[in-house]
Amino acid sequence: MKRIFFTAIFTGFCLSGKAQNTTARDTVSVSRAEAETIFLKNNLRLLSEKLNIDQAEAQVIQAKLWPNPRLEVGEINLWSNAKSEQLPPISGNWGKTSEVTVGLEQLIYTARKRKKQIEMEKVGVEIAHEYFQDFLRILKVEFRNNLTQLQYTQEKQKIYKKQLASIQKLLTAYSNQAKQGNISKSEFIRLKASELEFVKQLSDLQKENNQLQKELKTLMNLAPQSYLKISIDKFVPDLDKVANINLAELASSALENRPDVKASVLEEKYNNRKYKYELAQRTPDVTLLASYDRGGNIMNDFVGVGFALDLPFFSRNQGNIKSAKIEIQKSQYMKEEKNNQAQNEVIQAYEDLVVSKKLYENIEASYEKDLDMLLESHQRNFTLRNTSMLEYLDFVNAYLENKTIILDSKKELNEHFEELQFVIGKEL
């Protein structure tokens, strides 16, 4: 099987789709940090979401533009009659009996409406930035938890594969003994049943691995035929980072750093500016007019100027003003709720992390090694017939349960650590 390690060249191949074809699946062996680098660079959803910022900036450009002037040419007669008055020709001998009017209009915004709209759209750009950061925050914790789950599954597979290999080795020896009648067939069948249990466990773990492979390869935009393998480093977070955490500081940090909280503040700011814009709409805009009339007025060549504006007798934009004012109140309520939600989430995440940390610290560092040594001892004694099959299989089950508990404690510690970083909106 071809093994490809994380390099800049590999990333480029993934993006261009020009990686060489292989007859077997390509194994991508990376650390958590390297996997996240690929994810941040290649994730298609992130690239798509980032375009929303460009769209918001485009709205600022649009708001800065003045409306186009309007040109109108009309009243051109294509024929003449006996009563047509002779005029100087327009071009050559053509146009002696032709009339034409030309009008030019330019809309002028009043009450600083254009400036108010630009200010409003600029806040929209800030909101788009915060929405992108919030989307990145959500997607990043999803990605990291999938990495943790894949590490957990791969480590669990190693444990069961090791036990399956040991059982199969015993089965080979016991098969000959059973045929010779040196051991009872029931013992052989019991050992065979244990093998089947391990095979079933490994089958379920492989299905879980396949599901995680699909999710992570999609998030990292890797080739479908690749097989992702995450090194075990960073499976347990650095506990020194949470040793002296101050809960009040965490809650304050969440209000300062969480993009969804900052977006709720910007939503209120946006609605305040929209309210000012709607107030300005009470003042009618002015349209400046200029016209030219050839042969249709008291002068053969008439030039006139003028203006037009709506008379605010019936509508002074009352409905939109009231609606914008209500939006301000709604955004204030939403901002307050978002602040409360953020602080409550910080408290829960912190307390969950403390509980997981205590569980992990209650497991002695040497306990896992002691388990492995005891398992080897039981295997030797069972082979030498110093231990009964019942005692051996009971210990194997206890061994697997305890190894799973240790793995679970590491996984939960990592997940709660990531959850705490997620709810405060920054890396610890």
Automatic annotation (TrEMBL):
Protein name: TolC family protein
Upper taxonomic lineage: Bacteria, Pseudomonadati, Bacteroidota, Flavobacteriia, Flavobacteriales
Alphabetical list of InterPro entries matching this protein: MdtP/NodT-like, OMP_efflux
Family designation: Belongs to the outer membrane factor (OMF) (TC 1.B.17) family.
Coiled-coil region list: 195-222
GO molecular function: efflux transmembrane transporter activity
Keywords on record: Coiled coil
